[in-house]
Amino acid sequence: MKPLSLSIAVKSDSDRNDQCQRLADELGVALVTEEGSYPYLLVYSEDGLSIQQTGKGAAGPVRVDFSAGATNHRRKHGGRELIVKAVAGNQHQPPSVLDATAGLGRDSFVLASRGYSLTMCERSPVVAAVLKDGLDRARRSGDSELEEIAKRMIFIQGNTLDYLQRLDEIDNPDVIVIDPMFPESKKSALVKKEMRTFHHIVGADSDSEQLLEQALMKARHRVVVKRPKKADYLAGLKPNFAVEGKAIRFDIYSLRAFGKK
């Protein structure tokens, strides 16, 4: 995997130059006016911050928008989502959830829309910047329902393993959700643009097994692991049960029943 400074740069925008410069400084990458040799650019627009692939045949931008499209559909119909069934808990007093691999925050948003309190960790500084931008826009959207959902989503940029190791027992989450990077598909034409971007910018997960081990020591009630439907169990550890869809499944490691301390 290339160093971040060779993989991505921030595209300058005359209307947002200070904002662009701050982001470039925070990430330690170049601020450019042209794409040059960079395969990806971070681009600010009226729609927010996005990761934009460059070159011929480039895919469209990857951004976080909790108010539109598929994400908004999931907000309105989230009760039927597999992630909600997997996390479960008391619907009148939903459990606290740590999303250990937040990514673009979509599963966290579905859970928050159903009343769960979320803490989201994302260690990639690029993905974290895009997620934070989307969350900030949701919090000032003028949509009272969306703003209320966003208030239940606390974001932390950093390594989840470090975060868990520092966590006092009293602050342990009820449920920890882990979504390791899916293996890169050989059928590249079928891979979503977000996944191609993540593989390039973030790279492979090298510590997902260690993360599962730590999560099992910290979660109060259960650990939920998202997997491709036919994939092996993470770390070869068989779950207590699973919730399955057409292409994915959620492996559930039960530690103690909800309602028990």
Task: Characterize this entry briefly.
S-adenosyl-L-methionine binds at residues 106-107, 122-123, 179. Its main location: cytoplasm. The chain has helices at residues 4-7, 17-27, 69-76, 82-87, 106-113, 125-139, 144-151, 160-166, 193-201, 208-218; strands at residues 8-11, 31-32, 40-45, 48-53, 62-63, 96-99, 117-122, 153-157, 175-178, 222-228, 241-244, 248-254.
Instruction: Give the strand order of the largest sheet, numbering strands 1, 2, ... along the chain.
Output: 8-7-6-9-10-12-11
Number of strands: 12
Distance between the termini: 43 Å
Beta-strand percentage range: 15-25%
- The unreliable regions are none
So, CATH architecture of the largest domain? 3-Layer(aba) Sandwich
Q: Helix proportion of residues, in percent? A: 25-40%
* Name of the CATH first level of the largest domain: Alpha Beta
Order of secondary-structure elements: HEHEEEEHHEHEHHEHEHHEEE
Could you say what the CATH topology of the largest domain is called? Rossmann fold
Q: Give a quick account of the main beta sheet: strands, pairing sense, barrel closure.
A: 7 strands, mixed
Number of helices: 10
Radius of gyration: 19 Å
Structural class by helix and strand composition: alpha/beta
The 3D shape can be described as globular
Query: For the record, what is the CATH homologous superfamily label of the largest domain?
Result: Vaccinia Virus protein VP39
Q: What is the count of structural domains? A: 2
Mean of all residue-level pLDDT scores: 89
